[in-house]
């Protein structure tokens, strides 16, 4: 059974994935972090869930299916198209940023130190969860 707010993290780098998961689960017991080591596994996991994740953190640069291709798959699926996606990488070009805007995703810079990564992740999650709560309160949805 999945408890709390589900966050899906998709990244081919085990060190980056471990840093992301540690930042997500540290001090926040209401988050269940699910992971995938590549886009193919991430899509399979996403589409198998009974409850969609509140947020997907998606590495931009992965072998096989890239982060951008994975984002397109997520947005083209009727069930997952509205799930917030945070693309992340060590850098992004203006062309990348235009692509993310076009496909309704935000961008977060990857950090190599835990404190900076945790801070950015927690700010991102809090902002998204606050927006989701506000939407449900305004619309009367649960």
Structural description of this entry:
- The modification 4-aspartylphosphate is found at residue 59.
- InterPro entries: Bact_response_regulator, CheY-like_superfamily, Sig_transdc_resp-reg_receiver.
- This is Response regulator receiver domain-containing protein.
- It holds the Pfam family Response_reg.
- 47% of the residues lie in helices and 18% in strands.
- The protein is an alpha/beta fold and 142 residues long.
- It is built from five helices and five strands.
- The chain has a five-stranded parallel sheet with strand order 2-1-3-4-5, with helices on both faces.
- The protein has one domain: Response regulator (Rossmann fold, 3-Layer(aba) Sandwich).
- It has helices at residues 14-25, 39-48, 67-76, 94-102, 114-139, and strands at 5-10, 31-36, 55-59, 85-89, 106-109.
Task: Lay out the secondary structure.
Blueprint: E1 5-10, H1 14-25, E2 31-36, H2 39-48, E3 55-59, H3 67-76, E4 85-89, H4 94-102, E5 106-109, H5 114-139
Pfam families: Response_reg
Organism: Chryseolinea serpens
Protein name: Response regulator receiver domain-containing protein
Encode the helix/strand succession as letters. EHEHEHEHEH
Instruction: Record the strand order, biggest sheet.
Output: 2-1-3-4-5
Mean pLDDT: 86
> What is the fourth-level CATH superfamily?
Response regulator
Low-confidence stretches: none
Shape: globular
Using the CA coordinates, give the radius of gyration.
Answer: 14 Å
Modified residues (4-aspartylphosphate): 59
Keywords: Phosphoprotein
Domain Response regulatory: 6-125
GO biological process, one term: phosphorelay signal transduction system
